[in-house]
Amino acid sequence: MAVPAQFKAIQHHLRTAQEHEKRDPVVAYYCRLYAMQTGMKVDSKSPECRKFLVKLMDQLETMKKELSDNDSINQEVVGNAHIENYALKMFLYADNEDRAQRFHKNMIKSFYTSSLLFDVLSVFGELSEENIQHRKYARWKATYIHTCLKNGDTPQPGPMDEFGAEGLGPGPSPGIGFTPGPSGPPSANYNNIQIPPGAHAPANTPAELPPPTGELAPPTEVVKPVPTPRTGAAVDPPSLSNSQPQSAVQLSPEDFTKAQKYCKYAGSALQYEDVSTAVQNLQKALKLLTTGKE
Fold first, then answer.
1. Polar residues compositional bias: what residue ranges (predicted)?
2. Alpha-carbon distance 110 to 97, whole Å?
3. Cβ–Cβ < 8 Å for 93, 211
4. Which of 28, 53, 74 is the last residue of a domain?
5. φ and ψ at 143, to 5 degrees?
6. Does residue 96 lie in a domain region?
7. Are 19 and 27 in contact (CB under 8 A)?
8. Chosen domain end from 74, 95, 114
9. Which residues form the domain of 260?
10. Mean pLDDT of the region 43-49
11. Per-residue pLDDT tens for 256-266?
């Protein structure tokens, strides 16, 4: 079904959903859910938009029934972890390619698609500051690298702080929109994008993962980005033995939700055989449950 002109802002999220229909139905579902929620805010009254939204709702309802036994659909915390891990995996693949100075359409698309998935995370609530920065950086990088290649210039690898927020290397500033061909990201326009030093690499993400889509060939050489400071300090397991007994700790419902979220993140990390990330998230959950503090 054709996307109404009023819904231009969500057409790329719907395209991402279509691309993941068979590859990852959970990603497709939440991309459509984001598109529907956003579309409702934009225009739910005009006949064209209303008809489109009704069809989208029907599509979501059908998908929900088909995926009724999938925890990522039934439990928000699991769905949140699934989409965030997927977005970070795409981000890291593109970041590794960028730092190794392997500039190509797939890495541009990977940066751009990760930014769309960070948008989608808003269906679960407000984005963390870290994910907001990842989204800005991914969109800026997709724009910048595409424009450089289009103009025959060599992009500068790494975050902008490595070559100055004012001087963005060869090519125009990130405020310039772009319209690549079918293999690249859709046309877009990004303005006033800022990224703090070190915020280019996602935290709590495996450093060596294959790209999430069939289109993206895994890098022959993985260049690990400089890690960012993690939001919670790693807990040394022996130190937990000195923590307060559970009965003495007053835990709020929010604490239990956070602990559950850490456990789900750990489970997702294990799917990618990333032991260190799983351990770090389990340690965070343990610390929260035993001390009441993150």
1. 239-250
2. 10
3. yes
4. 74
5. -65, -50
6. no
7. no
8. 74
9. 253-291
10. 93
11. 888 888 887 87
